[in-house]
Design a protein that fits this description.
The protein is 0% helix and 47% strand. Strand 5 and strand 6 form a beta hairpin. The chain is an all-beta fold and 103 residues long. It has a single domain, classed as 3-layer Sandwich (Rieske Iron-sulfur Protein).
Length: 103
Amino acid sequence: MAKWIDACATDDIEEEDLIRFDHEGRTFAIYRSPDDAFFCTDGLCTHEKVHLSEGLVMEYRIECPKHNGVFDYRTGEALRAPVCVNLKTYNTKVEDGRVYIEV
């Protein structure tokens, strides 16, 4: 059964950036888009399990810091080799200045 987890404050993430969030042995990446929306994906690249929190955010894309694979963080879609497996995404909501993810 899915539940909502309080992950961070909205102010913890700059526009067009992300933060790492660890919960119960899992790593997530939480993004703030250019239009001030929040998104969440698995926090590790599907190619070699590198933490995406060290990657570069450009508009709606995250570039893995190790081999420069790119994902659309809104959908998790793998966009550029060497990544070929999509990231898992998670629903987000904002309430009272806090970002929640559904896990």
